[in-house]
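dumping these here so i dont lose them again. two proteins, back to back, each one seq then structure tokens. dont judge the mess
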Amino acid sequence: SGNWEDLVKFLQAARKKARESYVETELIFALAKTNRLAELEEFIHGPNNAHIQQVGDGCYDEKMYEAAKLLYNNVSTFGRLASTLVHLGEYQAAVDGARKANSTRTWKEVCFACVDGKEFRLAQMCGLHIVVHADELEELINYYQDRGYFEELITMLEAALGLERAHMGMFTELAILYSKFKPQKMRKHLE
């Protein structure tokens, strides 16, 4: 860490001489490595020529999630921000990031993380964006079933039937789940 502190001082001095993109990019990464997040935040909110997305990816890869969160938020990279927030256990914020990213891959990642964290209300919010894609339904169902969360899965599919983009696959899968776990609901569902 001492070397990174020295590098921060050197890069700050170099930046005074020339405001080069590569100097500013390395300075941001060095600030992240030394956990100087307040300085990092101040720097990225000011005028700079740094490659913030690139540094965010580097921080993410090195599991420096707090720094990555600041950087992705700054450049509005919502998919990576949602992924970062999942690693920080900030599930509600991750759902908000997934909503802004609005990609199936991000919805799935956040949904599965919420299931693993037993945040089923948030998982359902994500899941409703996934079940409308027939080709994604099986993976989602298997994820819940493999972990024994049948009740939560049934609740989500019941909620999904009211969606504008509901499809036959959802009705079929719910019927299968009823037949296995709630036979008393089967008849009403089929009528």
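---- next one ----
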Amino acid sequence: MTTRRFKMLDAILFVILLLIGYGCSVKNKFSIINFAHLYNHAEKPLITGLKIFHESDSNSRVYVRYKPSSLHYVLKMGRSYYRADYSISYRLFSSYESAAIVDSSTFKMFDSLYFQNDLSLVYNFPIKTLPDNNYVVEIKFSDSNRGIDSYYSQEINRKDANNSQHFLLVDQQDEVIFEEWVSWKTKFRIITPKTNLTKLFVDYYDDVFPAARTPFSLSHSPVYQLKPKEKYILEINDGITDYLQYGREGFFHFRSDSMTKDGFTIFRFHDDYPEIKESELMPGPMRYITTDPEYAMLAASKEPQTIVEKFWIEVAGNERRGFQLLENYYDLVKDANLFFTSYKEGWKTDRGMIYMIFGAPTEVFKKSEIETWIYGDPQKRTRLHFDFIQNKNPFTTNDFELVRQPDYKNPYFVAVDYLRR
């Protein structure tokens, strides 16, 4: 009798352990995924763009842009060509914190045509989504030949009926535009599944915004009371507009309902964006690494490029190294613009400022409305943590504000001093 009871207890314990193990195995991995590769060009991210488009009341389409040049092509025995084997998988969750998988699938692919080709490819697939629901989709891009998995995430907003995911920008070749900005050369159209929609209300703004405050500044965040410089109506027929092209700088906010702020925004920055090539724009990003007198001199100069070059040559001690430091710094500016553009240029944002001063973070973790960056060796106690909180912004979902602390002052100036060596 005793032996049987112990056997029953063992069986119950075994079942409990199985259930615990199963619960751990299906736990949402968002909380432990390190997304640092998203902000590190040295790691050659496999995916260079993600876009969500709600094409009906029950389906959303995911567009994935990637570069074949980041894949590993292999010449196998008996084969006369190089081939890359890879897959794109997705898992759909109700939030970053949710453990329940709403939907999932894997798409296996191979390529032998684009070996050593630097072009971009786009793959798209539908997922089932319901109105009045929000989701997060986890995308896994797997390079089978290299045995590497890279993870990406994108929030899906179905609760706001007029947000940007109900509209899609395409160029003259009907290629999807993944960025939220266009150049003066870009001709594009706006597509929506709302075929009964006949007009869009457009507000044009030409406001210029300042660079981010230092991470140790405890002054209040600026509050902007924006008023459009111009308002007009854009006609839309059968779910598509005529071709548009914007020469003037500023941003254009589109709404299908004039009584709400919900809509989408197209930004038109300077001509060479995300790069900085115009001499008069060069002093701006220097604000983070210069003293007040140095920056005043740079900003007031009638020959900004010359004086910026002189600054770096004096910092470096010789011309060759000075130009290398200058190039490195403006590469950071370009990357910040690529990664963190919101209602203003990426280098002006809080994340852009931290990225330019401290470089690419060691670890990046995401939760709903918060992104955490960590710098330093996980085995050491001297690590820097930065938390960025997502702001409610009618113009963009990419507006994150740093939680500032006085303790950041010393590491900030140490990093600035390092950049100036």
